[in-house]
């Protein structure tokens, strides 16, 4: 583990680290915020997954989350959004390839070689964090847009591994919207039955256990009706009685101004679940 | 006035506006955060001046200040750091020309034509803000690094115009450090007596009135001993009995992680002075 950045922040420490990640076959950058409590005791971990075009930097510079993590004694971990490197496949467009891993395990060439972000976030990253920092073993997950999709699908596939899940402006039905259909066809191939493991709406229909779930969605979000469509997840949850706290936030858009406005409430929500 | 950006944020509104600024002879971008209280009542104004290389964007995306402005009912105004445009002089180096206005009124060619940032921030900008938004007429000022120098010198030259002043990692003695000496020689010419009006240490020596003044400085700041040297202002204040609350913050560097960690305390400090 290399430390790329180390900065004092809210009496804790904001790190950016770099580690060799076997599953994605490249060096991954990860932001780790250690709250002041981490100096003397083990802390639970909250994983943040970012959206399209982001790196590990966006969340730590723009969300203002460290204040709340320091308040609640939670370690924040924010990985990059795709594998990176000269030998990693890419394609034209901000919504596929680098910066657009979509938190799936790709099966198709040329993507399968490195685009294994589901396995990385579910298994390799938590093992790495637990091995290198003093954690309680309790974890939760949240994210934004593509990262909200990642958080929801990862928690839904592993309901006993996460104390809670939340999302800002998530893509809840990737198999039904342009962003998801484009990359799933590329990463997973034409057989749509393989896509269902990465679709929150499909996953709630077969959920074995309920993870406390909150979603905040701005009503002025430019992607609301085309790519996000939270009403599809609401309907899927209602059909099976899956509890969902969906909050439509009047006038907010898709940006970090929205995330910053509500990240404190999300961290408090997770901190409560992580204490149980 | 053109509105370039409008975003909901902490139940208030983050604007970026563009206006024709006569004194600097160009179109200036200014960020204005209106707290929720501004919808129903007049609010006081807190001016933020940014550091070298910044635009009006850095503070509004990275400091997390809107939360506290919304809490205290304060309008935040953050202008760009220099005149901009195809006909505005520039030179090699991040520390002179565009992004480096240094909050002075330049007298030398080619700078004098547009680099009138002292007059802009002191006179034209407040007049513009008071004409376009419902303000109480009370104002305070703060800033970072070059902007900390700007805030201190503007408040010291106009002690009755500002309820309070504060700074993060300010350049307190520009006439004695490399950053200041380089640009003052270019913008103001070789006669160093003209530089004194823009040097906080020189200004406190002749202060007619005391403005409540707070400075936070990180001990791990990479510019602390070369460009910032807060001990020079501390000594200047002690010589004349000017009250200064200088706080050395252990382990913090020069970045927005430092600003974010203490901006809440600064806004509370100003809000109290603005209520009087």
Automatic annotation (TrEMBL), chains A, B:
The active site is at 145 (charge relay system), 221 (charge relay system), 254 (charge relay system). GO terms for biological process: formaldehyde catabolic process. Its EC number is 3.1.2.12. Keywords: Hydrolase, Serine esterase. SUPFAM superfamilies: alpha/beta-Hydrolases. It is an enzyme of class 3 (hydrolase). GO terms for molecular function: carboxylic ester hydrolase activity; S-formylglutathione hydrolase activity. It catalyses: S-formylglutathione + H2O = formate + glutathione + H(+). The keyword rRNA-binding does not apply. GO terms for cellular component: cytosol. Pfam families: Esterase. Coiled coil: none annotated. PANTHER family: S-FORMYLGLUTATHIONE HYDROLASE. Belongs to the esterase D family. Serine hydrolase involved in the detoxification of formaldehyde. This is S-formylglutathione hydrolase. The gene is fghA.
């Amino acid at each position: 583990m290399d430390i790329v950045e180390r900065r004092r922040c809210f009496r804790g420490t904001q790190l950016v680290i770099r580690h060799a990640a076997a599953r994605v076959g490249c060096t991954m950058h990860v932001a780790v915020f250690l709250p002041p409590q981490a100096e003397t005791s083990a802390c639970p971990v909250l994983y943040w997954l970012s959206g399209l075009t982001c790196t590990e930097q966006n969340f730590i510079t723009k969300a203002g989350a460290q204040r709340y993590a320091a308040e609640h004694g939670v370690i924040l971990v924010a990985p990059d959004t795709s594998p990176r490197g000269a030998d990693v496949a890419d394609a034209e467009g901000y919504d596929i390839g680098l910066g657009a891993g979509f938190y799936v395990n790709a099966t198709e060439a040329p993507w399968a070689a490195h685009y294994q972000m589901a396995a990385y976030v579910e298994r390799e990253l938590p093992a790495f964090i637990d091995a290198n920092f003093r954690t309680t073993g309790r974890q939760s997950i949240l994210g934004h847009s593509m990262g909200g999709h990642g958080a929801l699908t990862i928690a839904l596939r592993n309901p006993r591994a996460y104390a809670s899940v939340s999302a800002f402006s998530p893509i809840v039905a990737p198999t039904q919207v342009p962003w998801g259909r484009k990359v799933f066809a590329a990463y997973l191939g034409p057989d749509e039955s393989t896509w269902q493991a990465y679709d929150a709406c499909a996953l709630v229909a077969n959920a074995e256990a309920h993870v406390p779930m909150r979603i905040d969605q701005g009503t002025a979000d430019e992607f609301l009706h085309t790519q996000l469509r939270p009403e599809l997840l609401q309907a899927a949850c209602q059909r099976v009685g899956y509890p969902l706290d969906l909050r439509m936030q009047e006038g907010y858009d898709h940006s970090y101004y929205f995330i910053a406005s509500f990240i404190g409430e999300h961290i408090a929500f997770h901190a409560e679940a992580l204490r149980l």
